[in-house]
Amino acid sequence: MDAAAWDERYTATGLVWSAEPNRFVVAELADVRPGRALDLAAGEGRNAIWLAVRGWRVTAVDFSAVAVEKGRRLAVGGGVEVDWVVADVLDYRPEPAAFDAVLVAYLHLPPADFTRVLAAGRAALAPGGVFVVIGHDVSNIADGVGGPQDPTLLYTPDGIAAQLSGLRIDRADRARRTVAGDTGTREAIDTVVRAHRPTT
C-alpha cells in the first residue's frame, strides 16, 4: 500500500491500531534509560507516545500525513512532545549515530526495501543504543492469525538478526500474542529481535 492508500485507511476509522503500546515494545524498552528514540513507520504513534511519556525524546516517522496528524493529537492529549516527521522510511535518512533506541515495528516491505530501512536505522544508532525490530513471523501464515499472507514480506528471527551486522544480538526469537476477533481469541506469532551497538 502506498501513502495515499494508508491515508484512506487511517481516515476511515478512529484508530487503526490500539492507543496502547505494543506489548513487545514495552517488554524490550521499559528497562532502557531514556534518551533519544527513533520510531520508523510509526503509524498513529502509539509506541512513540509511550516512549515520550517515559521521558524519551522521540522522532516518529511515517509516510501517512493522516496517521501523523492523529499521532500529534494523541501526544498533545497526553501532554507529551514528539517530533513528528511525514516521510517515506525508504528515503528518510536520520542523523547518524544519534539515537539511543531505534524501533521498527510491523513494517512489512519487499526484502530489498526492508533491508534499506534496517540499514538506515542501524546507521542512526548511537554506541550503546538499542535496536528493536518486531513484526509478523513467517510461521504466522500457517499457525497464527492476521498480518500479511505473502511470506516474502514476513520475518524470521535469524533473517532479521543477519541484517544487523555490527550490532550484538540480545534476543532473536518468536513470540505469541493473543488477538481478539469476532470468533473469539487466537494467537498471532511475531518475530522479536533486540540488539545493541557496542560502546567499544
Defining key terms:
7-stranded mixed sheet; Rossmann fold; 200 residues; 7 helices; alpha/beta; globular
Quick synopsis:
The chain has 200 residues and is of the alpha/beta class.
Domain unit count: 1
Overall 3D geometry? globular
User: Major sheet, described briefly?
Assistant: 7 strands, mixed
At the fold tier of CATH, the topology name is: Rossmann fold
In the predicted model, the low-confidence regions spanning at least 5 consecutive residues are: none
Beta fraction: 25-35%
CATH superfamily: Vaccinia Virus protein VP39
Chain-averaged pLDDT: 92
Count of helix runs: 7
What's the total count of β strands?
7
Q: In the CATH hierarchy, what is the class?
A: Alpha Beta
CATH architecture: 3-Layer(aba) Sandwich
